[in-house]
Amino acid sequence: MSKRKPYVRKMGATWWLKNTFHTKYIIREGSSLVIAIYSFVLLFGLFRLSQGAAAFNSWLEVMSHPAWLLFHLLSLVWTLYHSVTWFNLAPKAANLWIGQKRIPDNWIVTGMYAALALISLAGLVLVLI
Amino acid sequence: MADVMKIDILRYRPETDQEPVWQSYDVPYTREMSVLEALAYIKDELDPTLSYRWSCRMAICGSCGMMVNGIPKLGCKTFLRDYPEGMKIEALANFPIERDLVVDMSDFIAKLEAIKPYIINDQPASLEDGCHNQSPKQLAQYKQFSMCINCGLCYAACPQYGLDNSFTGPAALALLHRYNQDSRDKGKAERMKIVNAEEGAWGCTFVGYCSQVCPKDVDPAAAIQLGKVESAKDYVIAMFKPGE
Predict the structure, then answer these.
(1) What membrane topology does the annotation report for this chain (chain B) (predicted)?
(2) What confidence score (pLDDT) does residue B125 get?
(3) DSSP H or E segment with residue B22
(4) Which among B14, B135, B228 has CB closest to A3?
(5) Please, which residues bridge with residue B67 across strands?
(6) Closest-CA residue in chain A for B139?
């Protein structure tokens, strides 16, 4: 008779804390939650703007509270962390060639940063004009 | 006189143990000693009941995958000198433990078989046609992904597979990509059904640890992301071919 009794280990809710690579991954993915909240806050600001200057100004006043400033700072740092780590992974999803040579990974990463700089600049120009 | 290292090993003897238990061994070691040699020392000199798998001792057979301090490693490619604080060895994560360091890989093997890991071509070239010509670029499209030794370290590194083993997983999807990219192969349409499935490439959340632990630099994470690109193209093309 077989004595086989394979033991299956369970992955607990804290599996991502056991390995720094996984922890960094969850931190990266966690940014999506913060960005979702940030987007709702921004959309609410747009909604208040549609209600007139007084409504928008009261929203602005709420936003100047230190807790909201901290939230925005946290969102910025987390988004930048997501961007940097995501840009580093981008070459894995690209199979680009020039003739018989594959485009080096750092070209793709640099291209991502260049695109970010250009889009940010365009956004800044749009806001300032 | 050689230094002595304390090595903790997660033991599981199905006939007596209800769950795995840690056991310590003191192993004299030299600079050149690999984890696999340490296990051999334990089995020969300290405890003949210890079970583990090994074969080639040169990082090519993929038999001796295990967790060393929580990280998937090949026993033959990992050296005691790099762990001066001691080490904890356990069976490869995300697989059922059969006994001690031996895991049941049958699910992984079934997945490898399912992706049809061979060249499919209804009209193979005959001998009269001469040899297959492949440009360096055509070879480079799949060569890296053909280096897999089926050690399973990437599955042990993949939380997606650990949480839900219906996910096809890194090595099988990398091997699938390898055959899809081979210019001699015509089986892409058959394999795309596996890539397109929810448990195929789209089951991957791009943790990327599989590529980090791969002892052969196969980069399964890259293969899967490229699989997603192919799957997206396949989806768009299918929209223009209704009924197929």
Answers:
(1) Peripheral membrane protein
(2) 78
(3) strand B21-29
(4) B14
(5) B72, B90
(6) A100
pLDDT at B244: 62
State both tokens at B73: 């490693």
B70 → closest Cβ in A5, A8, A18: A18
Which among B60, B55, B66, B62 has a CA at the least distance from the CA of B97? B66
How many interface pairs between A and B have CB atoms less than 8 angstroms apart?
Answer: 69
Q: What is the pLDDT of residue B131?
A: 86
Rounded alpha-carbon distances, angstroms, from residue B232 to A103, B83, B145, B238 = 22, 44, 21, 10
Q: Which two tokens stand for residue A68?
A: 């909201």
Instruction: Tell me if A6 and B96 make a contact (CB, 8 A cut-off).
Output: yes
Structure tokens that stand for A124 in this block: 């800044």
User: What is residue B238's predicted lDDT score, i.e. its pLDDT?
Assistant: 87
Chain A nearest-CA distance from B4, in A, is: 27
At B64 the three-state DSSP class reads coil
Residue B128 to residues A67, B124, B125, Cα–Cα distance (Å): 77, 11, 8
Which chain B residues contact residue A15 at CB under 8 A? 159, 162-163
Of B15, B137, B211, the CB nearest to A100: B137
Q: What is the DSSP string of chain A?
A: -----PBPPP--TTGGGSSHHHHHHHHHHHHHHHHHHHHHHHHHHHHHHHT-HHHHHHHHHHHTSHHHHHHHHHHHHHHHHHHHHHHHHGGGG---EETTEEPPHHHHHHHHHHHHHHHHHHHHHHHH-
Which residues of A fall within a CB distance of 8 Å from B98? 4, 6
- Complex ipTM value: 0.91
Do residues A102 and A96 make contact, with C-beta atoms less than 8 angstroms apart?
yes
Q: What is the mean pLDDT of each run of 10 residues along chain B (244 residues)?
A: 89 96 96 96 97 97 97 98 95 98 97 96 85 91 96 98 97 98 94 96 96 97 96 92 70
Most A CBs within 10 Å: which of B10, B18, B69, B99, as the mutation test of the A interface? B99
